[in-house]
Design goal:
423 residues, alpha+beta, Helix Hairpins, Heat Shock Protein 90, 3 domains, 5-stranded mixed β-sheet, 4-stranded antiparallel β-sheet, 7 helices
Length: 423
């Protein structure tokens, strides 16, 4: 499972974990060694004392020569009867606590008889407890020190990474004159990351520049033949033509006008958005809607569709006419193309507009991807490439508008464009 903790926190956790393991093992080792040495030394001392008592004092009929902290017990001497609490202790060294008092007990079996020496070691146990408290305090201090050191080290390690992230986040690195990042960093992992970012960003700049130049050049070169076509259509419209011929000329003229709008749209999208004067608004939503109604109403009626226009509110903002015209025209064209009977409705709202139709509709699962390039619905018709809605989405993103789609209750679709801010 991927660790989603921040890198700085992971460094701190690593420092603390390593310290806990090392200090914990070291502290437990100290405690274990103290116990082992204590048991070994006390066992040797009590064994010697017990040997003197059994071999010398008892054989000579004398009382055991012991200090005030040590008591002697034996199973074969009634005067030194073994207390019940010591009767079942194993042979060798033992330790017992009686309240706040600590006793070391050494048991030895000689010729079937049990002998015990019990020595009070409360003072020694207190000193031993002090030692253990010091070990515990050292362990806690080492963990605290590891946390502080880990925090300082993580700050130091992450400083260049955070700096690089801020530079990438706040600089407009896609500008051609954006400075390289790698020279600001040493030749380490962060420097290599900055160099890799510069390299990738350089290729991205070149790719975007090639796309921009291609779009600009193609759009610019197309304007000349389109002007020729428009001029020719204008001249033909002044000639006495048959109705069928005049209809074809009008169709060519209409297609030429649409292509001119598209060329102008591509030219504007290829420009850098930083110069807002290139995208200044000069037309209202009502003006663009009136143009589109004049263009599409005859085509809707020709196909037998009920084309409705509903003005719910007068929108006072002004927008770039080329971009707004392209968005509305694409949505109306799609509605005409995919609606065989019923209605197409254009609704003007306070903050945008929507286009509804009673056509084949778009399945719910396709709503998210219908704006992707080269994506066409299951009911796709004609020889289109699926770029119309992608262009609409791109224009809306460019202008800060929002576009959404949802299905109507019975049949058909509704595309809604919401303006975020008017210029």
């Amino acid at each position: 499972m991927q660790n989603k903790q921040p890198f700085r926190r992971r460094i701190l956790i690593a420092f603390a974990t390593m310290t806990i393991l090392v200090s914990g093992v070291f502290s437990l080792s100290i405690v274990a060694i103290v116990h082992l040495i204590e048991e070994h030394l006390v066992s040797e001392e009590l064994a010697l004392e017990l040997g003197v008592v059994v071999q010398q004092d008892l054989k000579s009929g004398q009382a055991p020569r012991l200090d005030s902290r040590t008591r002697f017990f034996a199973s074969n001497y009634p005067q030194y009867a073994i207390p019940q609490r010591y009767a079942d202790l194993p042979e060798g060294f033992s330790e017992q606590l009686e309240g706040e008092r600590a006793f070391y007990i050494f048991t030895e079996i000689i010729n079937g008889d049990r002998y015990l020496l019990v020595q009070e070691q409360s003072d020694f146990e207190k000193r031993e407890q002090v030692l253990f408290n010091v070990v515990l305090a050292g362990f806690l201090l080492s963990v605290l020190g590891a946390l502080v050191l880990g925090w300082l080290m993580s700050e130091r390690v992450m400083r260049p990474v955070s700096k690089l992230a801020n530079q990438v986040r706040h600089r407009d690195q896609l500008l051609p004159l954006a400075p390289a990042l790698a020279p600001e960093y040493p030749d380490d992992e962060v420097g290599q990351l900055a160099a890799a970012f510069d390299s990738t960003l350089g290729r991205l700049r070149q790719s975007l520049e090639r796309e921009r130049l291609f779009t600009s050049d193609v759009s610019h070169e197309l304007r000349t033949p389109l002007m020729v076509i428009a001029s020719s259509c204008e001249l033909l419209s002044q000639v006495d033509l048959e109705p069928t011929q005049r209809k074809q000329v009008q169709r060519i003229e209409r297609a030429s006008a649409e292509m001119q709008d598209l060329v102008q749209t591509f030219l504007q999208l290829a420009r850098v958005k930083g110069n807002e004067t290139l995208f200044a608004g000069s037309a209202s939503l009502q003006q663009i809607a009136d143009e589109q109604v004049e263009t599409w109403a005859p085509l809707m009626r020709e196909k037998g569709l009920d084309f409705q226009v509903d003005v719910q509110a007068l929108h006072e903002g002004v927008y770039n006419p080329t971009l707004l015209r392209t968005v509305m025209a694409n949505l109306l064209r799609n509605a005409l193309h995919y609606t065989e009977s019923g209605f197409v409705k254009l609704t003007l709202q306070q903050n945008g507009f929507r286009v509804e139709d009673s056509g084949v509709g778009i399945p719910e699962q396709h709503h998210e991807h219908i704006f992707d390039p080269f994506v066409r619905g299951e009911q796709a018709r004609g020889e289109g490439l699926g770029l119309g809605l992608s262009l609409v989405k791109r224009i809306c993103a460019h202008q800060g508008w929002q576009i959404s789609v949802h299905s109507l209750p019975v049949a058909g679709s509704c595309f809604e464009v919401t303006f975020q801010a008017a210029s």
